[in-house]
Specification:
Blueprint (H helix, E strand, L loop, with lengths): L11 E4 L2 E4 L3 H26 L5 H21 L13 H15 L9 E2 L4 H24 L6 H25 L4 E2 L6 H8 L1
Antiparallel strand pairs: 1-2, 3-4
Length: 195
C-alpha cells in the first residue's frame, strides 16, 4: 500500500460521505485532535522511558486516552454521523471524571492559578491541556454549522480538566512543586470561603 495518493494535491480531502476542502471546519477539528494525540504520545513516551515511582497508572491512562482520541477523530470524520457508527460514549467521559478524582487525592489544595511547569512531564501535560482546549473550540465551531456528535465535545471538555490534574499529579510523582501564578491573589482559597 502506498502512503501517498495524490488525491489531495488540489486542496481537498475525503471525510466519510463527502469530499471537502482541507481547511473545512470538520477537518480542522479532527486534525487538532490528531495533533493532541501526538502530544499525549510524547508525554506517554517520556513517562515510559524515564519512569516515575507510582507512574504506571498515569501511563496506562495516557495510553487509553490515545485510543479514545482516535475514537473522537473517527466520530468527527462522518459528514452525516449516525448513532450506531459512533464510538465515543458517555461512560468514557464519566471515567475521566473518576480518574480526575483519583489523581487529585493527596495533592495540595489549589490556592492560586497554576502556570505550566514544575517538571518536564507536567509541562508536557499542560501543552496537552491547551491543545485539548483548542480541539474543543474547533469542534464547537464545527458543530455550529455541521453535524457533530455531542459526546465528543463533552469528552474533550473533561479531558482538558484531566490534563490539568494529571500535570499536578506528575509534579507530585516527580517531587516537583507546581508553579503558582504569584501576581494573583489566593483566588481558590477566597472562593472556598465565600461559597
Amino acid at each position: 500500500m502506498k502512503i501517498y495518493t495524490r488525491t489531495g494535491d488540489k486542496g481537498t480531502t475525503s471525510v466519510i460521505g463527502a469530499r471537502v476542502s482541507k481547511d473545512d471546519a470538520r477537518v480542522e477539528a479532527y486534525g487538532t485532535i490528531d495533533e493532541l494525540n501526538s502530544l499525549v504520545g510524547q508525554a506517554a513516551a517520556w513517562l515510559a522511558e524515564r519512569g516515575a515511582e507510582g507512574g504506571e497508572e498515569l501511563l496506562g491512562q495516557l495510553l487509553e486516552i490515545q485510543q479514545e482520541l482516535f475514537d473522537c477523530g473517527s466520530d468527527l470524520s462522518y459528514a452525516d454521523p449516525k448513532p450506531e457508527q459512533l464510538k465515543v460514549e458517555a461512560a468514557m467521559t464519566a471515567r475521566l471524571e473518576e480518574w480526575i478524582d483519583r489523581l487529585e487525592e493527596g495533592l495540595p489544595p489549589l490556592q492560586r492559578f497554576i502556570l505550566p511547569g514544575g517538571s518536564p512531564l507536567a509541562a508536557q501535560l499542560h501543552v496537552c491541556r491547551t491543545v485539548c482546549r483548542r480541539a474543543e473550540r474547533r469542534t464547537v465551531t464545527m458543530a455550529a454549522s455541521q453535524a457533530c456528535p455531542e459526546e465528543v465535545i463533552r469528552y474533550l471538555n473533561r479531558l482538558s480538566d484531566y490534563f490539568f490534574t494529571a500535570a499536578r499529579h506528575a509534579n507530585s510523582l516527580l517531587g516537583a512543586a507546581d508553579v503558582e501564578y504569584i501576581r494573583g491573589a489566593n483566588v481558590f482559597a477566597r472562593r472556598t470561603r465565600t461559597e
